[in-house]
Amino acid sequence: MRRRLCLPASLALLALAALPAPASAAWFPAQPVDGPTPDIERLGGVDLARDGTGGVVYLKRVDGAPHVFLSRFNGGQFRPPERVDNGVAQGAREAAIAAADQGRLAIVWTSGGRLLGSVVGGGSGGPGSLAGPTELFSSPGGAVTDVSLDMGINGAAYAAFATTGGGGSDVRAVRLMDTTWQGVGPSIDVDPPRAAGRGPQRPRVAVSAEGNGLIVWGENHTDGRPRVYGRRVTGLTPSAFPQELSIPEFFGQLGGRADSPDVDIEDDGSFAWAVFRQEFNGQPRSVARRLLGSQFEPPGPLDPGAPTGAPRISINGRGEGLATVESGGGVLGSTLDNDAFTPPVTLSSQPSTQGAEPEPAASEHREVTFAWRVADGAGNGSIRGRLRPDLKAAFEGEVQLSRPDLGPVAPGQFAATADRLAGFAVAMVQGTPGGRTLTVAVHDRPPGRPGAIARSSWTSPKRLRWRPGTDLWGPQRFRVVVGGRVLGETTGRSLRSSSARLRTGRRLTYRVIAIDSRGQESPSRTRRVRFDGAAPTLGVRVSGSRRRGGSVQVTARARERRGSGVAQIRVSYGDGHAARKRGSRFSGSHAYRRRGTFRLRVTAYDRAGNTRVKTVRLRIS
After folding, report:
1. N or C: which terminus of the chain carries fewer CB neighbours within 10 A?
2. CATH architecture label of 9-21+447-531
3. Topology (CATH) of 537-620
4. Over the stretch 175-223, which tens digit does the pLDDT of each residue have?
5. For the whole model, what pTM was predicted?
């Protein structure tokens, strides 16, 4: 709520304030962003920056052709959708989004044989304009598919994608710096004549804080056993030493085809994790490998030995996070802490008749979550979610994130992301071809505890102030409670009260309750203070020479019969010089070094912060 709110004084003084305990973070089920409409086709992606800004992109038909739309996430809300590919007549096939702090966004999409992109520069304090569309790559006569996009915290981004090439397809990449896109070398493939990058071999990219990329992908091989590879990209230059991640054997079992890679990277680009699926003795397993410096360490399992697939990983800038795999229609998860995975445990309560497609997300605050799809016997899917509030804690219970009244979620039509303070978003497309809705469920942390400011044991009702607690998804409003009664509410950081009951000097409780846009509350600690709403009386006497270089004497005395008592007197001589003394009396002299008319200002402060000011006009000749 953006406008200022105040209760009428008569009502506020009669209302009893509830005394809520600090609220826990909560899931809020999916809310519509666009639709229902038969024109929504598919989800592109969703991403949040560490500061809680971001957006969701999706494809929606305009005049019969699918085009790219963006809904930005600012101030804790998804904003009205806007078209991204203005001026592009050809329909889009896929879209992806990446976000960095202060509203910076990168959006890429495929359209036939072209890859196109748009950029929001960010940093303006409000939603910036979209720069583009810009053609990033063109493959005449061939399709561009399987796009992956990531952006580092410094705003550099990489997109990896598949396009027509040797053996049918190659993996290529482009880099974004500021608002300029540039191609990265030739193809990323290890063996360009071999097919790479499409379907289960699709590439994935992660970007470090230094602005360099790490790309993983699947690629065919001359021996008929498809491999998974990883390759660094520094600036526009791919590493001369790509590494194979798939392995020839695992715990004595012969390694077969490998695919479905995923990757995430720490702030320090020397540390990353890649996961992939590989067959061993014909059985699919999920494997993780850590990048340390320039080499991938030996592999480790993400499953207990049973067949698994669809491995995914999400880590924060310190390398903490969660890896998930699909197993028998359910979900197994392993938490990553101190560079080691915990043993995999079952995290879903019931199997899905189709792929669960788990999607993990990790915040910078040690919380992790994941979403997955549960399909019934008829194939109608719903989206569930679970959260682990700390890497040392247990996962909380399942929550249904999709809205049953908005229809099912089809395979591949949901994605999850996180900011730095346990803010999570799960975007999805719900419904049937006759009417689909783009929705987003969020996990919203309550506002941080505000700090009620009081001057020792006394304060002034004219200056009720507080420090807001952290809330990346603002805005907040604040309810001021004194002596168990509500004085008022405001979206500012102070409240002024003229209530006569706050001038008595009696000790009363004082606290502030922060309320976010979803109604979650966090109270400050309770202070016990006395209120003093009256300023001290003040007498001022000025004597002495009023000539340049002469000495002007100033004496002042302040009094309070009742209340907090006088704290100090400050004198500003009007020529850039000032003096102050503690207590109720001031005596001092000052020599003016130039001629002119000066405003001598004397201010008396009491211990509650009330002030009395007197001004004397001096003409120095």
Report:
1. C
2. Sandwich (2.60)
3. Immunoglobulin-like (2.60.40)
4. 999 999 999 988 999 999 999 999 999 999 999 999 999 999 999 999 9
5. 0.87
